[in-house]
Every structure is written in C-alpha cells, then in structure tokens.
TrEMBL record:
<dbReference type="Pfam" id="PF00300">
    <property type="entry name" value="His_Phos_1"/>
</dbReference>
<dbReference type="GO" id="GO:0005737">
    <property type="term" value="C:cytoplasm"/>
</dbReference>
<dbReference type="InterPro" id="IPR013078">
    <property type="entry name" value="His_Pase_superF_clade-1"/>
</dbReference>
<protein>
    <recommendedName>
        <fullName>Phosphoglycerate mutase-like protein</fullName>
    </recommendedName>
</protein>
<dbReference type="GO" id="GO:0016791">
    <property type="term" value="F:phosphatase activity"/>
</dbReference>
<dbReference type="InterPro" id="IPR050275">
    <property type="entry name" value="PGM_Phosphatase"/>
</dbReference>
<dbReference type="InterPro" id="IPR029033">
    <property type="entry name" value="His_PPase_superfam"/>
</dbReference>
<feature type="signal peptide">
    <location>
        <begin position="1"/>
        <end position="19"/>
    </location>
</feature>
<keyword id="KW-0732">Signal</keyword>
Length: 351
C-alpha cells in the first residue's frame, strides 16, 4: 500500500492548536518515554553537568525506518529525519486511534528574570531565594542562541505549541528564549500559561504567582488556559504542597495537554521540581535539570481503561515566619523577626 507519502508528510504544514480537539475522554492515559532517540534516557548518560547545547539536545545519531522513504534522505538532517519518523508514528499506516506521540521539550527557567520579580515582590522576600541562585543570567540567552542555530543549521522542527508556568521566572524565560526568533507565520510564539506547570508550591513567595492581569500586562500575547484564575488560589503562607500532590498534578497537567492539544512538537517552560515530577509521570528515568537546562522526550501516550485517581494529602505544614521577614541574606536565608519565628527552619531555595 503506497498511500503514505512521507516526503509530503515532512513538508506538510502542521496545524495550529485545533479548538475543541479532544482525545482519550473518559479514559486514563498511560505515558511511556520511548527510549533510543535521546541520550538522556540512556542510563549511561550522567545528568550531572550534562549540557544539551554540546550534543544537539541529545538527539541520537541513528537511522529510522522512515529514512528510506524520504526523498534525498542522505541530505536531510538528523532532526528532519526524526521529524518524519515521528510524523509517521502519528499519521502513518500503522497509526492506532488510542495511541499518540508527542515530542516534549521540558525546560527549566533561566536567569535574567529576577529584576522583574524583585520589583514585584520586594527585595527582602525576593532575597529569600535569590541568594540561592545558581547560574548568572546567561541561561535563557544561551537557549535562545542555540534554538536559532538549530533551526538555521539543523532544520530542527519549530514548536507547534508552547506552555509556560505562570511564575515570573518562567514567563520571562520563555520570552527571552523564543520571542525574538524569526519564526514562520504558521508557528508563532504564543505560549499558553498553565497553572499545572508551576513549581512545587512551597511557602516561599517565589512560589506565589502574579495575578492574571499582571501577567497579561507583562506579556500581552500570552494566552491563558481555560479557567485560569485572576489570583493565586493555590499558594499558602504556612503550608506546602506534598510530594504526592505534586506527582498527581504533574500527571494531570500532562493528561490535559495530551487530551486537548493535537500538536506534536511542544515546548514547556517550567521548574526543577515540577520537571522531575513530569519526567516521573512520563516514566522517564530521573534526570535533574540545572538552571536553564532543557530535556526533550519522545512520549508515547496510550488511552487505557479509566483508572481511579487516588486521593492524596494536598498540603502539609512548613517552616515559615509568621510575618514578613525582616531581611534575608545568603548565609541565613529568611530572617524572621524574633517574635514571629514560628519554626526553627526557614530555608532558602529557588527551585
Ligand atoms: C502502561 O505502560 C506500561 C509500559 O510503559 C505497561 O507496562 C503497562 O501495562 C501499561 N498499563 C496499562 C494499563 O496499559
Ligand atoms: C551526532 O553527531 C554530531 C555531528 O558529528 C555531533 O555534533 C553530535 O554531538 C552527535 N550527537 C550525539 C547525541 O552524540
Ligand atoms: C545533496 O546535497 C548535495 C550538496 O548540497 C547536492 O549536490 C545534491 O544534489 C543533493 N542530492 C539530492 C538527492 O538532493
Ligand atoms: C556565567 O555562566 C557561564 C556558564 O556557567 C560561565 O561560562 C561564565 O563564565 C559565567 N559568567 C560570569 C560573569 O560569572
Ligand atoms: C517579550 O518581552 C518584551 C520586553 O519585556 C516585550 O516587549 C515583548 O512584548 C515580549 N514578547 C513576547 C512575545 O512575549
Ligand atoms: C495584580 O497585581 C498587581 C501587581 O502587584 C497589583 O498592582 C494589582 O492591584 C493586582 N490586581 C488585582 C486585581 O489583584
Ligand atoms: C545575615 O543576617 C543576620 C541577621 O540580621 C546577621 O546577623 C548576619 O550577620 C547576616 N549575615 C551576613 C553575611 O550578612
């Protein structure tokens, strides 16, 4: 049967997110990160110090079964051949309605965003996590330069959908990474702000998000997922999200993306904690991301019989000051006024 035209598939213009498209309704979704395409899922690859920009995002140099059907396959780049392969997984002759594949690029925010956030939250509170930053403001610019290079020299496919955590360090990183790239008209940079991609919710104000009005004022072109609330309904001053709740949220936000977004090539700008939970939900091996790092995953999603979602404890108490901190510094983190120190620990951290 010669009805599958792979050369045409490669050239076909990807559809923009189709309003109302839905998949796996009334089903549960089983995710697998498909091994053999990116070095990051190989146990032999050490995540410590791994740099996507040294190895073409980790895309393995290999052949694909679809190569032989590509016109002038020898002249195609690894990314072009991989794109044709993935396209075939989703639309080829062997496609199953209960299975879909996506390529997710999960990025951890970079720096270059703290000025905006500091002016928003105020210096003492900001310092409670600012002091812990690793990285020096170059990560988002590095990603920006690397994407430009990959698009130009490697014909890497453009993202069809973008998502970002609502927290400033991500909305800003997404902007710095993508906003000035010359993208074709059918692949505009219009990220959707999605609550489920925010960081594990600690008591620190760095995990409290801006209101919707403020985000849309900063980034007028960004879209919001349906139901995105004006103010932060999830952050709590004295309780933090449990690990079990974070894991469940990560699975739920991925389910939502796979249920509602027809597109294949997807960029997610998020944080270290939620990225770890996303990888776990995708059944990828642990691969911790340092600031500004980006990990691609080829995901197979299979609609399976509905499974109940277990009930988990959503929040647990956390150390905090009972009132705004007096100040903060690198050696001590948050410094509570002595009369308000509720608990001995007020850790810093900038996930
Ligand atoms: C989900 O996928 C895994 C392989 O990744 C498989 O072992 C498991 O049986 C699947 N579960 C269901 C309910 O299909
Ligand atoms: C694939 O080959 C290219 C060119 O030799 C090299 O730059 C790249 O690092 C290789 N990719 C991996 C994942 O080893
Ligand atoms: C492949 O690229 C080379 C060099 O750019 C060119 O000379 C050749 O015609 C190309 N082959 C095909 C089949 O397109
Ligand atoms: C910033 O970080 C990069 C990468 O880690 C490093 O190469 C560079 O020297 C750093 N620059 C400064 C001014 O610290
Ligand atoms: C990116 O940020 C700049 C500076 O804040 C802003 O002018 C621009 O509208 C933003 N672009 C997008 C696409 O977010
Ligand atoms: C949204 O946040 C901005 C910045 O902090 C603030 O000025 C504004 O009053 C807030 N709006 C609402 C409706 O809370
Ligand atoms: C940090 O703040 C505490 C409390 O104000 C102070 O005693 C300490 O000297 C400060 N440390 C540094 C390095 O500034």
């Amino acid at each position: 049967m010669k009805t599958c035209n792979f050369a045409a598939a490669l050239l076909a213009v990807a559809p923009a997110a189709v309003a109302g498209w839905s998949w796996a309704q009334g089903k549960s979704i089983n995710f697998t990160s498909v091994p053999g395409y990116f070095v990051q899922d190989d146990e032999a690859t050490d995540p410590t110090g791994f740099d996507y920009a040294a190895v073409n995002f980790g895309l393995i140099n290999r052949t694909y079964p679809t190569d032989k059907r590509l016109t002038a396959a020898k002249n195609k780049t690894q990314w072009q051949r991989f794109e044709a392969f993935v396209k075939d997984l989703n639309s080829g002759c062997h496609r199953k309605a209960n299975v879909q594949y996506k390529v997710l690029f999960i990025g951890r925010h970079g720096e270059g965003w703290h000025n905006a956030a500091e002016s928003f939250y105020g210096t003492p509170a900001w310092n409670c996590y600012w002091a812990e930053l690793d990285g020096n403001g170059t990560a988002a610019y590095k990603a920006n330069a690397y994407f430009k290079d990959r698009y130009e020299t490697q014909k890497m496919p453009y993202f069809q959908s973008y998502y970002t955590s609502p927290l400033s360090r991500c909305t800003v990183t997404a902007n710095l990474t993508f906003a000035d790239i010359h993208l074709p008209a059918e692949h505009p940079f219009i990220p959707t702000v999605k609550e489920g991609f925010r960081e594990g919710i600690s008591i620190h104000t760095c995990d409290r998000r801006s209101n919707k009005t403020y985000i849309s004022h900063m980034f007028p072109t960004y879209k919001f997922e349906p139901g995105f609330s004006e103010t932060d309904q999830l952050w709590r001053a004295t309780e933090e999200e449990t690990d079990a709740a974070l894991a469940q949220r990560a699975k739920a936000v991925l389910d939502d993306v796979f249920r509602t977004d027809k597109n294949t090539w997807i960029s997610i700008t998020a944080h270290s904690g939620i990225a770890g939970a996303l990888l776990a939900a995708l059944n990828h091996r642990p691969f911790s991301l340092s600031t500004g790092q980006i990990i691609p995953v080829l995901v197979k999603a299979e609609a399976v019989d509905l499974r109940p979602t277990p009930t988990v404890q959503p929040y647990e108490p956390s150390a905090t000051c009972r009132a705004p901190p007096v100040t903060s510094n690198a050696s001590q983190g948050c410094v509570c006024a002595s009369t308000t120190a509720a608990l001995p620990r007020a850790t810093t951290g900038e996930p």
